[in-house]
Design a protein that fits this description.
The protein has helices at residues 133-139, 144-162; strands spanning 8-15, 18-30, 34-39, 46-47, 68-74, 79-86, 89-98, 102-104, 107-110, 112-119, 125-128. It is mainly beta and 179 residues long.
Length: 179
Amino acid sequence: MTFEVGSVITVREVLHGEVWLEFPETVVTDDGTMLVTVQVDGSPMTQHPEHPFGPHPWSHLDAWSGTTVLKLRRDGDWYSVWRFFEGDRSLGWYVNFEQPVTRRQDGIDINDLQLDIVIDPDGAWHWKDVEDLGPAVASGRIDLGQLRAVLDAAPDLVRRLDEDDRWWASWDGWSPVES
């Protein structure tokens, strides 16, 4: 299944089989194996506060605020790659470790797995939220299989970053002004 360029899909963050958060993203391109979307500043977010894990960490927000985000998701990957923009100025890239995307008729399901890599505009990178992994496992937010999958995906990403061998480099010139 592919999504039409320019269509708006619903992204659902699903934790333990229950929707926790929903928001719209617009399809930039979709070839059936890589889905590229954009989440614009001001996109509404629908919370599901009755979730068994309590409110989503972004429950204080009614809308995405401050940046526009280009998101690249490849089927089967345990991460997506994001590029943040303030207006048309890139703030850098970001690797968001998450379960492989699941496509639905009207959108996709994701599950954020806590760990991230922040890539500055100059290419320097650093880990983000490493300290959240232990508590996420202890609370049941993520399980050991998910943790292993994230830790298995991380070395290849680190190698790619160290060698400047980013499969997403072809998107370096993209700007939200073009879309």
